[in-house]
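Write out this protein's structure.
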Amino acid sequence: MVRAWLTALFLTLGLALATLGSAWASGWPPTERIVTYSVSGADGRAIYDDIGRKGPRITEAQRPVIAHMTFDLKWGRDYKKTGAGCVLTRVQPFLTITYTLPKAEGVSGELARKWQVFAAGIEVHERQHGAYARMLAEEILAQTRDLTTASDNANCDGLRAAVQVEVADAFSRYKARNLEFETREMSAGGNVHQLILGLVQ
């Protein structure tokens, strides 16, 4: 069951990234990094307990998580005064995505097989979050590159404000996608829950 789910999810993620590929072919591919932390144990339960001790924290106040995706999104924008208004002449995203994932040390035999299924599934989960970060950048790019104002000041403050409205809207959609996905994946019987059971049982 878990293997069938992994195959389906890899195919779904591949289609999502392929859809984004044409946009990134224009010369703004994201930079991706993988950071690992080491865990160990004599069995799946012990390894999972070690993840609970060593896993990354989203904030200092929160408990460790199995893995997470973070991103840094910066922009290059050029604003040009044209008559009474302004036009955005350049919009370029600079996106860096970092995945923090567990790496088991010293596993072999059946435990190694169980770990491989677990680790692959967790990476697929995090890469879906990465796909949402790419989608965020693409949405902001699509919604802002043709923006103009008919009447603006010398600093193009009206156009800059319009850009920030579009950015805020895109971030709201990004957060909603992530929340829906995370809630579904982490629920009882959800994909991540099934991966954990496959490791510890």
